[in-house]
Design a protein that fits this description.
Blueprint (H helix, E strand, L loop, with lengths): L2 H17 L1 H28 L6 H31 L3 H5 L5 H31 L10 H26 L10 H9 L10 H7 L3 H13 L6 H32 L12
Helix pairs in contact: 1-2, 1-5, 2-3, 2-5, 3-5, 3-6, 3-9, 6-9, 6-10, 9-10
């Protein structure tokens, strides 16, 4: 990986955003809609359940953290798909660009986009609905780190899937966060799920984050062992995703798939 190649990928994405405001708008629009919708739902539930749980801290906090994870993942995949849509792979890899620099550029682009989305979410959640991440204390840092690493891992994995199956498989990428949310226990404890869903949930790093978040709100605290397990899983998954992308890319070169890349799925 070289810093020059990494920054070149980031600069390409910045040029794309500067030249097309429609690429920038989704960074803010969808997260704002989610925060406003769930903010009012949380406020309503709080008004009809006197003395009940703090729905702003639990529901709206969960939405904010899950949206942050989704923005991280989609930041990687969207940057990758820009090269898919423009048929730009041969141009990129005709240069001395390495896989590490390319993936690093996608990750850094995702970091910048997700931070912008996070600022919008925090302004709306705190200014309109009174949610403060300070309620979770310093643990908010490892919480967001776990979600960030898992989002990067999932974004790289989804990019490898599209590279292997072809651009027509793009539709498989967008539903991934929604498909994982029931297993991750975003809005409820894992104990409410059937045993087989709990087993899957324990393999997902976000489940440890949301269990810990609910423990803080309920005054039970957070298990440091569980949080470390979630962080360890996220690190392992990001290493696996990088290995998988590199392997798929090398196979695409050997098979000629990269040169034949088209809008059709590749068997």
């Amino acid at each position: 990986m070289t810093l020059r190649g990494l920054l070149a990928i980031v600069l390409r994405q910045l040029y794309l955003m500067r030249g097309s405001p429609t690429r920038v708008l989704p960074i803010f629009a969808w997260v704002a809609v989610d925060i406003v919708l769930w903010g009012f739902i949380s406020r309503y539930l709080g008004s009809v359940s006197h003395g009940g749980p703090d729905f702003i801290a639990t529901l709206l906090g969960a939405v904010l953290l899950w949206d942050f994870f989704s923005r991280v993942m989609q930041g990687v995949t969207t940057a990758f798909l820009e090269d898919v849509w423009s048929r730009n792979f041969l141009n990129l890899f005709a240069t001395p660009l390495s896989i590490g620099s390319y993936l690093g550029g996608l990750v850094l682009t995702s970091v910048l986009a997700s931070l912008l989305g996070l600022v919008v979410m925090l302004v709306l959640a705190s200014g309109v609905f009174g949610l403060s991440l300070a309620a979770y204390g310093l643990l908010v840092i490892p919480f967001m780190l776990v979600l960030f690493l898992f989002g990067i891992a999932l974004g790289i994995f989804a990019s490898a899937m599209v590279l292997r199956l072809g651009p027509a498989s793009e539709w498989l990428v967008w539903p991934i966060p929604a498909l994982l949310s029931p297993f991750a226990g975003v809005f409820y404890p894992l104990s409410t799920l059937p045993a087989w869903m709990q087993a899957i949930g324990r393999g997902l790093p976000p489940s440890y984050v949301f269990e810990g978040m609910r423990g803080i709100v309920a005054g039970r605290g957070v298990s440091s062992v569980d949080l470390a397990l979630g962080l360890g899983l996220a690190v392992l998954q990001i290493v696996f995703a990088c290995w998988l992308f590199s392997r798929v890319f090398k196979q695409a070169i050997r098979s000629g798939l990269l040169a034949r890349y088209s809008a059709e799925s590749v068997a």
